[in-house]
Amino acid sequence: MRTYGNDLEKIEKDGLTRKLAVRRPDMLEFSSNDYLGLADHPLLKEASIRAIELYGSSVAASRLMSGNIALHEDLEIRLARQTGMEAALLFGSGFLANTGLLSSITSRDDLVFSDKLNHASLVDGALISRAGVFRYGHCDMDHLEYFLANRTCRGNRFIVTDSLFSMDGDIAPLRRLEQLSMRYNCNLIVDEAHAIGIFGNGGGVCREYGVKPHAIIGTLSKALGSYGGFVAGNTDMKEFLINRARTFIYSTGLPPAAPAAALKAIDIIESEPDLGRKLLETASHFRNMIESSGFSTAPSESQIVPVHVGENHRAVALSDYLKTENISAVAIRPPTVPEGTARIRLSVTLRHSREDLYHTAEVLNFINGGIR
Ligand SMILES: Cc1ncc(COP(=O)(O)O)c(C=O)c1O
User: Fold this and answer.
1) Domain ranges of the chain
2) Strand-pair partners of 90
3) Does the predicted model carry a pTM greater than 0.90?
4) Å from CA of 159 to ligand 1 middle
């Protein structure tokens, strides 16, 4: 029989135990990805309730069976427009979008060049397809170019990257990635999960930089205040995914409340195009406050602010201490981040007041001497 005691003991010894904690509304929350504060917006709630009244709480079938509703199709049109791509296809989550996309468009004849700090779902998608995978150093374009010049295959080659990295808050050199993908005849795939709604007037970093990748992946579950994921690409790709992406074909369509809320979020972002810029300015100010307390927040250039601690137990101790100050910020440890780089990850959102951010920076300032 499979037993778990030894594994759990080892996890504990390495300081890597993960525990579920119920969210407490009285705490100052820094681990939420509700970057624009839209998950609690009255218009999103109203839209979701209306959708439930109209369609019920579930579509109760995959979209290729009877689970396709107008809200799914409307949202796909809006997401395509927002990202500047021809078409978009919804998936059950961002994770399912990444695994569905990469496992279907790549095969064992192909090669995938993947940034070392890419999200786990991008790594898993390529593993499923059995494509050859080369992981280049984080944002290291020389390393990537070395691979591109020296690793060939019978099939297609893909460069895969997050646009805004989820644990460091830094941005991939997308213009350079686009140039390399053109020079070496590769398909560029960009995961914009943390950037959609914030950069490029809500369309993401590719749109901000004027970069046109082969495909963009996004999630509804962060800045769009809802739940679900999507892939944006050309219309042929969409049709291909409908026919080949197993996480799309064999999975129930998103519940009506989810696309309804996301559609409303896009309305709000379109009517208030400064929301993302406002968030980024607030985050920049917050990073400066934390840096002046002696902690490093490098290389963040966004609303995702890592506070580097290094050792696993120390990161947990810092997170526990913050809890005593009513601040909720989870310790991030390997394998989510590389060994020796444990940190507290603070997500700045538009729900945070100036006072909230000042208080948090003050607490970090106070404890800095003790923890380091
Ligand atoms: C870069 C990146 N891609 C994909 C995902 C998965 O998105 P979802 O939460 O919608 O499954 C995440 C989620 O944390 C992410 O950070």
Assistant:
1) 42-271, 274-371
2) 230
3) yes
4) 18
